[in-house]
Amino acid sequence: MTLRLGISKDADMAVLFFPFEAGWVDPPNGTSLISKPLADLEKDLLEGALDVAPVSPVTYARNYSRLRLLPTPVRAFDLAADSVFLFSRKRLDFIDQVKVAVSPNSSLGEAILQIIAPKYYGITPEIVYSPSEAAALEALQGQTEVSIVSGEAAMRAAGWAKAKGYFVEDLTKAWWIMTGLPLPVYLFAVRQEWTVQEPDAVGKIRSLMLAFRRAIQYSQEQRPTLLQRLEQQTGLPEDALDAHYRAQRYDINESHLRGLLEFYRRAAAARIFTAPDDLAFFPALSPLAPAPSGPPRRNQPEAERPQSSGEQRPRPVRKEKENRPARPNPSRREEAQAKGLRVIKGGKDTSNHDDEDSTEE
To answer: Facing residues of 102 across strands?
Structure first.
């Protein structure tokens, strides 16, 4: 049975897919490559026209009984994706009623906004689905106050929107600020039906995962060629693309998994969709890499759950007085005392010492 793999020319996926298109890496035997926009790949996977394709975490949650996740690759970031953007004519806290135009591949950004907006801005967004990324951006000219666009189109539009004075927010960064956890932007899923019907499903999926690892390696080794091609395609400068790709992560780690599960918990609490019963991987997920040290924060993330009244908060540890550092600028009194001189208060020596041993402050 042929393995039908969905790939995309979107710049966000270039590290994973361009090596196949350029001939640097051959897909496993019996694999056919089908290239379409990301939103169409998700649709074809669910309709049975594809066997493996990238999907957003939202698409997986809504169809988890029909899909299994590949242990690798994943497209994630330790902080912000820089490709899931909210564009607004003004800040959300200055808007009473918000109508939001959502592009076809922006279900993750839509869900993040629905989680954040009621609690932090006191608004409930009214969602309007646009047929394309361009239509979502054009809606800002009058039909809607806000647009959510993802992927290559969002990367290109960010500079334009800022130049026109629009408010631009990276929604994955807003999620990180709220929770302190990163959130995978795309997962790779295989149809559950295919894993049952294909006699060598495990072998073929493992071969596919190895091919993706080779693609990532070649993208690193041939980075100048990759950047030159993507600069011509997107119009974005090479240094910006290089920084974007270096920030991407392709192996899921403990922090990514916690962020994904927390996203599902909050989305279910907000009644956006039902959280999956479990994250089903095919083949089984091997031990995860530990989470790397997180970027520095100026504030603490929101607590995951409120503390019950019966719990006692730990008391802060007070530093001992002798361990406190000395003041950087000692007073004249302290300088005199350090030299062994006696300090006279008010200019009058009331002690029995001779005057010649004293000094005035």
So the answer is: 129, 148
